[in-house]
Amino acid sequence: MIPIKRLDENNFKKFGIVIEPDDRSKVFSVICGDEKAAGWRIGYLVAKPENVNGMEAHPESMETFEPVSGTAVMIVAEQKTPDKIEAFLLDKPVCLHKNTWHAVSVLSDVAEIKITENYNVESVFYKLEKPIDVGYAK
Predict the structure, then answer these.
(1) Which positions ≥6 away from 122 have C-beta within 8 Å?
(2) DSSP of 18-77, one letter per residue?
(3) Most distant CA pair in the chain, distance
(4) pLDDT interval class at 136 (50, 70, 90)
(5) How far is Cα 5 from Cα 135, in angstroms, rounded to an integer?
(6) Residue (of 86, 42, 99) closest to 65 by Cα position
(7) What percent of the chain has pLDDT over 70?
């Protein structure tokens, strides 16, 4: 079982950015972006609990995952080590680095997540040897 970690800037930085302001006294802050991207799109994921049998990555696009409702877990791995999987409780929005392997596991009856990414997205897929089982560390 892969333990679910707390999502914070330090333990998530190799996979992406936790979307929260560095300085809460500012009215507006740009947290992440890609000046080279041509357009972007917003998606809305409605997910239910099911086995996670694979992950995907986007070589040319960062991607945000912003929790709306329910309880979800962000499953991630670095590009060169897709079998070295980590799991984080998705209780804050995140922006994944390009080429980060990722999947979502749901712990509630349903979870809803807002996603933003480049308008045209290339996806690559990685099939896992066995389904991912996540749980809270004891």
Answers:
(1) 58, 59, 60, 61
(2) E---S-TTSS-------TT---EEEEEEEE----EEEEEE-TT--EEEEEEES-EEEEEE
(3) 47
(4) low
(5) 9
(6) 42
(7) 97
Continuous segment of H or E residues that includes residue 113: strand 111-118
**Domains annotated on the chain, with CATH:** 2-21+38-136 (2.60.120.480)
Q: For residue 15, which of 121, 90, 120, 114 has the smallest C-alpha distance?
A: 90
Mean pLDDT of 106-122: 95
Q: 58: pLDDT confidence band, cut at 50, 70 and 90?
A: very high
- What are the backbone dihedrals phi and psi of residue 13, each rounded to the nearest 5 degrees, phi first? -60, -25
Judged against a pLDDT cut of 60, whether residue 138 lies above it is answered with no
- The reported pTM is 0.91
Residue 11 has φ and ψ, to the nearest 5°, of -85, -5
